[in-house]
């Protein structure tokens, strides 16, 4: 927060004392709360940032809105469509409050550049997106433990790609999805009916199409890539997930190392995202990224999971 | 043919006198035929090369086999599965004769390199393929006129990607396909129920999956790309369809021009392919690329077209 | 400064009221001085940051040291070798004070990565450097007006490459330099005996060699690149001055836009650099980048300028 | 030769019986000679191809010209400037005969593309060349044994870069050169006063400049690169010596393998070169690449070697 102009971190809340100690010692947060209701009652608090389990998002957002606070919440909004709608309904009752779900990739400089170029007609009319979220293989399989509550690979990973596709294609209505997947390495995902590699086709109205790929098993690093094709050109963000500007020429050939995780890849974007939220709160400016976007991403993500399980297209 | 060791071009056949004149004047072919049966009766003829309309392939191959000739035939073998099987049955009666369908990409040096590396375990166990065949936009729309008989974008373009996916994944049995497409520019394809951009998912046994993309509308050039992901790495052939080794830095940024068509991209591969055929004929060596492969590519391609039209997965 | 942990901007100094107003209004600096001596007397000031004309650097650094302040000063230390030595002598009398000359590229993440890899033996023994600093062509020719006091292209631009070469090659003693240059566009540089494109060879002891290229006339952007070759490999920083992770495929081919100036290229490095300085001041840790390094860079830069004018090698 | 239209290999000549046997068995050459004079007397011989030790080139070319034969000879023409001039004088007496020295890189498709683009003004006025010829490290040190007669690294390797620089810059007169070098690995080159890594600056008239780098010690492969900078852009041939279109993503990062030697890099160019020669002979068309070019390359190469030894610039 110290890096976000206009924002001051006044309080932190967690049921875990270890987290509160870290907030106090590392972030020098002056006020600490174990109880969320107590946090919301903190005098002088303008906005809350929710980095909590997804299942808690809806209720916590609603509670914050009712307490008159702006809300920034990590994606996804919820794994349950009804919950998404409840949050949206509550937000509609507080038009003066900002609610932003953290689809961080929209704030990445390269994605922003792509978006602006599309707006300026650089690729004609965009009609096709290929977007992937591929995590580096983690021998510890941390995400496997998380699989029970993650909503599966499409709601956990592809939700970003879904949001990007909608944004870059001009928010078309989805019509039909089809998904498939495989367990290439993590056989223990079977218990959660989840896969470690998934692909999907999402058909929108007016002949717009998105194809998604999500993976947990990349060897070379975290590989996030999005390609947008239009009638007059194509834009690609992240064709090589290079770690930095260093290139190595040695017995392995000419090569570059790769970013190991989304954090290194989107570190700057997280800052831009939060700054955009704070700026919007301070300027009372409407955010482009809305709860409707977050709801739609969840809706499509759920359909992908249904298709994966039913092996049938799912109509939207 | 003058560039293929061990081969001599002894005769040419075409119903069109203009083609025969070109063969005589440009290729210096000594013997010319208007009639295919007459060609097959030419004394000293060992093999025929069929560069004819797809609808003629099956009968012409069968006729050649019955005349005791080896056959090289451009892809696809046929748009009709029954025809594919008739050809295979006939070929089975002539085990001493070679029949090769021209899936030229298998003979490209980069694809060969990828194949060898996979064989040597470079990426562990391969389980996922993304493969695309994207033609440069042709304002004359030549392919539109051809659409009536091409079999559609999947049988015309993706058939290459299908063959590559099977080859690189170790010839797994296909299980289910799903396809979608759009007419981004060429609205006149509607009359043929064809699209100018198509995507598809092909699920194989044992959790292997291929995703295909075919397009007629690229602005930058002919963009053929194949990605093979395994449990220990990923190989990509053609991530940038660079025309040559020249890079330009100017007001447009840092850039390279692209190959305009499959011909520039696969010029060397055509030569390698024909040389491999001639070598196999001369050495009586079994070809790795079989009629069963060509039949399977047509079978999957037909299923993709069915899925595109029915908007339903097609079981194989 | 608000982005540098541990630092607080307490005062600003400039003879120009417009600059002071900007400091007050934009940076919210609480104390403003027109007079440098008055600034140095400011109570509670620990360190000064000098972003002043090069000709003022030596005296201002000496004055700050005598006032007991740590000093960060933009490169180059001075265009005059004697001045460099005077500053070093003064600094030696204040071993408890830090003086850092802003060779910002050393703090760039990619250069840092290269340095670490070399330390870990990634390229065997490094013996050859090629390093370039190429500015985008500026139709306004701002730098031409600056040419009278810049010290010429080698002291203004290549001084960075000189410092990088020494650092990456392990600080070898320079032995002999040879330089050449041309005025490709800016003929008006003739009055300053300066060029808009210069190349140079710098021979160090033990057969280590660096080649430099500096330019003011690039069309595509600011192109800073450094290549370090060792007995077991080569590292390249900045082989393509890509603006971000966006790639465009259109009628111009496949391309990326480029950073327009050193500021976009080294924005993060400036922050890292200042943070490193502040950290060193707070931890009383010795800086790796010393006044001796800055002096050596000036010494070699002067020799390059002499060689350019005399068309003879200059011994060091 | 079987791959060169219009040419027939009628005879071969070598003093070594093993070479003659190879020509007979592998190339099926019908006529074999141990004696060069006897070869030249062969009935029906139009042209000779000299792939002989450099020291023999001048006399063999002159003898062939006097016998009325066209001559293709491997580079360099000679290591001796007087010999170059003797050959040119003899050639001038046979204006109907073609003599071509094999500067193969001019015939590479990428270099040809660069040349055409420059002719069409793509980079404005070209004024700066950086060109390198870097061989992969050979643990057997074959070239060391060859060093006694190679003329040293500049006449052996950089002679290509010299020729390219002259060609791409519009054949300007050289004015002054300066060279330096080091023995990074091959200390045994000291006996030949040669180096395994050399750099040089060549100044031409009108402010045009070329910088050369030659190396025998690359780890990653054969790395031939040329950069041409003009007032409106820059062209780079070979910025990454990629082996083919395959890219590997694995634990080493994202990478490509490299061509191991000039042969893989310039295989197609050799064919184009010989075809151009044969075409010129048959069409009686003047070759763009002349003996004057070959002489100039040797002249500049000799000057580089002199500068390396004298540590002084050499005027031309």
Automatic annotation (TrEMBL), chains A, B, C, D:
Principal EC category: oxidoreductase
Pfam families per record: GFO_IDH_MocA, GFO_IDH_MocA_C3
Keywords: Oxidoreductase
GO cellular component: cytoplasm
Span of domain Gfo/Idh/MocA-like oxidoreductase N-terminal: 5-102
GO MF annotations, alphabetized: inositol 2-dehydrogenase (NAD+) activity; nucleotide binding
Any GO BP annotation: NADPH regeneration
Gene3D superfamilies for this protein: Dihydrodipicolinate Reductase, domain 2, NAD(P)-binding Rossmann-like Domain
E.C. numbers: 1.1.1.18
Domain GFO/IDH/MocA-like oxidoreductase: 111-235
InterPro entries the UniProt entry points to: Gfo/Idh/MocA-like_OxRdtase_N (IPR000683), GFO_IDH_MocA-like_dom (IPR055170), NAD(P)-bd_dom_sf (IPR036291)
Coiled-coil residue spans: none
Protein family: Belongs to the Gfo/Idh/MocA family.
Protein name: Myo-inositol 2-dehydrogenase
Natural source organism: Collimonas arenae
Native organism taxonomy: Bacteria, Pseudomonadati, Pseudomonadota, Betaproteobacteria, Burkholderiales
């Amino acid at each position: 927060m110290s890096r976000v102009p206009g924002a001051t971190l006044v309080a932190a809340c967690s049921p875990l004392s270890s987290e509160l100690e870290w907030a106090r010692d590392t972030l020098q947060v002056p006020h600490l709360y174990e109880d969320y209701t107590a946090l919301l009652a903190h005098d002088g608090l303008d906005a809350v940032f929710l980095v909590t389990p997804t299942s808690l998002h809806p209720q916590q957002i609603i509670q914050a809105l009712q307490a008159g606070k702006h809300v920034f919440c990590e994606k996804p909004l919820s794994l349950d469509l009804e919950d998404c709608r409840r949050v949206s309904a509550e937000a509609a009752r507080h038009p003066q409050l900002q609610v932003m779900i953290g689809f961080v990739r929209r704030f990445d400089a390269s994605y922003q550049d792509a978006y602006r170029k599309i707006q300026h007609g650089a690729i004609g009319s965009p009609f096709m997106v290929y977007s992937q979220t591929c995590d580096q293989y983690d021998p510890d399989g941390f995400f496997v433990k998380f699989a029970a509550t993650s909503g599966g690979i499409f709601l956990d990973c592809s939700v970003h790609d879904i949001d990007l596709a909608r944004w870059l294609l001009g928010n078309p209505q989805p019509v039909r999805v089809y998904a498939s997947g495989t367990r290439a390495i993590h056989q223990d995902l079977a218990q959660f009916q989840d896969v470690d590699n998934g692909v999907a086709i999402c058909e929108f109205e007016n002949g717009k199409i998105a194809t998604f790929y999500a993976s947990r098993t990349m060897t070379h690093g975290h590989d996030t890539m999005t390609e947008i094709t239009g009638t007059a050109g194509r834009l690609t963000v992240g064709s090589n997930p290079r770690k930095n500007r260093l290139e190595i020429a040695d017995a392995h050939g000419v090569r570059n190392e790769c970013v190991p995780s989304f954090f290194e890849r989107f570190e700057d974007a997280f800052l831009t995202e939060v700054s955009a939220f704070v700026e919007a709160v301070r300027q009372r400016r409407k955010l482009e990224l809305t709860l409707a976007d977050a709801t739609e991403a969840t809706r499509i993500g759920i359909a992908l999971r249904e298709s994966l399980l039913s092996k049938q297209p799912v109509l939207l």
